[in-house]
Design brief:
The chain is an alpha+beta fold. The protein contains two helices and four strands, in the order ββαββα. The longest helix has 18 residues, at 67-84.
Length: 85
């Protein structure tokens, strides 16, 4: 996430994207600048990729940009996946 790249994945019909917000390369910046962000997690259930899916079909949730925030994202994604099944 520090290099300004998003992580994409899927589980069954569920697709997801997790990225640092703002999405920018902060690897060589100060620790404060690196941590001055949030995680943006998005889920959608269509067969299309992120760019081709309308924003109205995506569910978005923000999380703290911390290790605990990542744990919360995994929990949230698992709940979304369970709802699908």
């Amino acid at each position: 996430y520090m290099y300004g790249e998003a992580y994409y994945g899927s589980s069954g019909k569920m697709r997801f994207r997790v990225a640092r917000e703002p999405l920018e390369n902060v690897f060589f910046k100060s620790t404060q600048e690196q941590m001055d962000a949030e995680f943006k997690a998005e889920v959608w259930y269509t067969p299309f990729c992120y760019e081709k899916t309308p924003d109205t079909e995506k569910t978005l949730k923000m999380f703290p940009f911390t290790p605990d925030g990542l744990v919360d994202i995994v929990r949230w994604l698992n709940e979304r996946s369970d709802e699908q099944q």
